[in-house]
C-alpha cells in the first residue's frame, strides 16, 4: 500500500496543538509523529503542509442532501462535492425527502443511492412518525446513525404531536433520538397573532417571533422529560436559545444521555441580519436575537454544547421569496462550515482545539462512529489541511452546492481548505475534486 508523508504542518488533535507530521498508508493513518521524528518506513510520496494545520475530517451529523425526490435543488453527488471542498468527510442525512425515509425500504434505497453518488462517508436517520414506531427495533445498530423526530412542523411536514406516539418512540428506539424541537401550538398562536398585524405578506423579520424562544424551550423541555422518563438517548438538534441551555448538563458526552447540537447559522447570524439578508437566512428554528447568539457563543467552550453541525438545507433562490409565511426555510452551509468556525476561533469566540472537538471528535464519540474523528494510528485517514489566509471574498463562483448561492456571499474569510483526504484518498486538492471517488457507509459501535 502506498505510504504518504504529510509534513511541515501543525496537528490539532485531542486537545493538543503541536508541530508534527502524519503518515497515511492505504486507507489508514499509519503514524502520528512529533516534530523531528521521521517515518518508520520509507514513503512513496511526501506532501508539504506549508505551515498549515492538519485536522481530522469534519463529521456533520445534520444535513439535508435532498436525495431522493428533491434533486432539482441538491443531491448527494453535488452536496458531497461541496462538503469535501469544505473539509467535511462524513455526513448524516435527514429523512424529510420524497419519499420520506420512514420505511425500511426507503432507508435501504438511500444507502444504495449514496454508494453510487457520495464522495464522502455517509449514514442516514430513520424518520419517526405517529405510527411507525414498531419498526424502530428493526433498525441496524451498526449502520443507522439514529432516529429523527420532528416535534415541530418543518420542511417535509413530519410532525409527531401525539403524546402516546412520542412516548412509544422514546420507549422503542435503541438508537439515538435526534429531535427537532419547536412547540407547534405556540407557533400557530404566534402566526395567528402576527397575521392580524401584518397580513399574508408578513416581513421575514417576524420569523423569530413566530418560531419564538418559548416555542423552542417548551418543546425541548418535553423531549428532555421524555428522555429522562424512558432512559432514552436524546440528542437535541440546533439549539438556538439561551433558555434551552438551562436544560443541559455541563458534562462530557460519556457522562450523560442528553446531548445538544448548535448549527452554524445560529452562531453566525442574528435577528438584526434579516434586514440585510432577508429570507436567505430563514431557517427552522429561526435565527434569533444577539443575546441568544451570545449565550451560544459562551456555551461553545463548555460541555453544554456537544456538537457543531450545519443543518445544510439547500433551496432554489426562487423558493426563498415571500416573507415570513411563504419563503421556504433552510440554507446551504456545509462548504463553509469549518471556515466559519475557524473565523470564530480567530476572533477568540472559540479555539482551534474546540473547533476540532465539536466538529470532529464529539460527533464520533456521540454516535460511536468506528475509527473516525481523530488523528490516531490505525484509524481511517480522513484528514484535512487548512491554512490561514490574508483574506478572500466569497463569490457565487466559489459555491459548489447545486442551488448556486450562499448567505455568506460577500463575506471575507481568512482561512482556506487546502486538501481533504477521505479514507486515505486525496479527494479535494487545492480546488480540484476527484469526482469519481466514492465514500463508505459509516459503522457504529453501540
Furnish the topology, listing elements before pairings.
Elements: E1 3-13, E2 16-25, E3 28-34, E4 45-48, E5 53-56, E6 58-63, H1 76-85, E7 88-93, H2 104-117, E8 121-127, E9 146-151, H3 163-172, E10 177-181, H4 184-198, H5 207-210, H6 213-230, E11 234-236, H7 242-245, E12 258-263, H8 264-268, H9 274-277, H10 290-299, E13 307-309, H11 323-326, H12 337-346, H13 352-367, E14 383-393, E15 412-422, E16 425-429, E17 432-433
Parallel strand pairs: 1-4, 1-5, 6-7, 7-8, 8-9, 9-10, 10-11, 11-12, 12-13
Antiparallel strand pairs: 1-2, 2-3, 5-14, 14-15, 15-16, 16-17
Label this structure with key terms.
446 residues; alpha/beta; nine-stranded mixed beta sheet; 13 helices; globular
Please outline the major beta sheet: 9 strands, mixed
Poorly predicted residue ranges: none
Q: Which structural class matches the secondary elements?
A: alpha/beta
Q: What is the arithmetic mean of pLDDT?
A: 97
Radius of gyration, whole Å:
21 Å
* N-C termini distance: 31 Å
What percent of residues adopt helix (DSSP H or I)? 25-40%
Strand-and-helix sequence, N→C? EEEEEEHEHEEHEHHHEHEHHHEHHHEEEE
Quaternary assembly:
single chain
Strand content: 15-25%
Q: What shape does the CA trace take?
A: globular
**Secondary structure tally: strands:** 17
- The number of helical runs is 13
Amino acid at each position: 500500500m502506498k505510504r504518504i508523508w504529510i509534513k511541515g504542518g501543525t496537528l490539532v488533535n485531542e486537545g493538543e496543538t503541536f508541530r508534527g507530521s502524519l503518515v497515511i498508508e492505504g486507507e489508514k493513518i499509519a503514524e502520528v509523529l512529533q516534530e523531528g521524528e521521521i517515518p518508520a518506513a520509507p514513503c512513496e510520496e511526501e506532501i508539504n503542509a506549508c505551515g498549515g494545520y492538519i485536522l481530522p475530517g469534519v463529521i456533520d451529523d445534520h444535513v439535508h442532501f435532498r436525495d431522493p425526490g428533491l434533486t432539482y435543488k441538491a443531491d448527494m453527488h453535488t452536496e458531497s462535492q461541496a462538503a469535501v471542498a469544505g473539509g467535511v468527510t462524513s455526513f448524516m442525512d435527514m429523512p424529510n425527502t420524497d419519499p420520506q425515509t420512514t420505511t425500511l425500504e426507503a432507508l435501504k434505497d438511500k444507502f444504495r443511492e449514496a454508494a453510487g453518488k457520495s464522495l464522502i462517508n455517509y449514514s442516514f436517520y430513520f424518520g419517526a412518525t405517529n405510527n411507525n414506531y414498531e419498526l424502530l427495533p428493526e433498525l441496524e445498530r451498526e449502520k443507522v446513525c439514529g432516529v429523527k423526530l420532528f416535534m415541530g412542523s418543518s420542511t417535509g411536514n413530519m410532525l409527531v404531536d401525539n403524546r402516546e406516539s412520542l412516548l412509544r418512540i422514546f420507549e422503542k428506539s435503541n438508537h439515538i433520538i435526534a429531535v427537532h424541537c419547536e412547540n407547534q401550538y405556540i407557533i400557530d398562536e404566534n402566526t395567528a397573532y402576527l397575521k392580524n398585524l401584518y397580513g399574508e405578506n408578513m416581513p421575514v423579520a417576524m420569523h423569530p417571533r413566530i418560531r419564538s424562544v418559548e416555542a423552542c424551550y417548551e418543546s425541548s423541555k418535553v423531549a428532555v422529560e421524555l428522555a429522562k422518563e424512558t432512559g432514552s438517548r436524546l440528542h437535541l438538534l440546533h439549539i438556538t436559545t439561551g433558555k434551552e441551555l438551562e436544560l443541559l448538563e455541563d458534562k462530557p458526552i460519556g457522562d450523560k444521555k442528553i446531548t445538544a447540537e448548535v448549527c452554524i447559522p445560529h452562531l453566525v447570524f442574528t435577528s438584526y441580519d434579516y434586514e440585510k439578508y432577508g429570507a436567505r437566512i430563514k431557517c427552522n428554528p429561526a435565527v434569533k436575537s444577539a443575546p441568544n447568539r451570545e449565550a451560544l457563543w459562551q456555551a461553545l467552550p463548555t460541555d453544554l454544547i456537544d456538537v457543531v453541525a450545519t443543518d445544510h438545507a439547500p433551496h432554489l433562490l426562487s423558493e426563498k421569496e415571500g416573507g415570513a409565511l411563504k419563503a421556504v426555510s433552510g440554507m446551504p452551509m456545509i462548504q463553509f462550515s469549518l471556515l466559519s468556525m475557524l473565523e470564530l476561533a480567530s476572533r477568540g469566540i472559540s479555539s482551534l482545539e474546540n473547533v476540532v472537538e465539536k466538529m470532529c471528535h464529539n460527533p464520533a464519540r456521540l454516535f460511536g462512529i468506528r475509527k473516525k474523528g481523530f488523528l490516531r494510528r490505525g484509524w481511517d485517514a480522513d484528514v484535512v489541511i487548512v491554512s490561514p489566509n490574508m483574506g478572500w471574498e466569497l463569490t457565487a463562483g466559489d459555491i459548489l452546492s447545486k442551488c448556486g448561492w450562499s448567505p455568506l456571499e460577500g463575506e471575507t474569510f481568512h482561512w482556506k481548505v487546502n486538501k481533504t483526504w477521505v479514507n486515505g484518498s486525496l479527494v479535494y486538492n487545492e480546488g480540484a475534486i476527484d469526482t469519481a471517488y466514492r465514500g463508505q457507509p459509516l459503522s457504529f459501535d453501540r
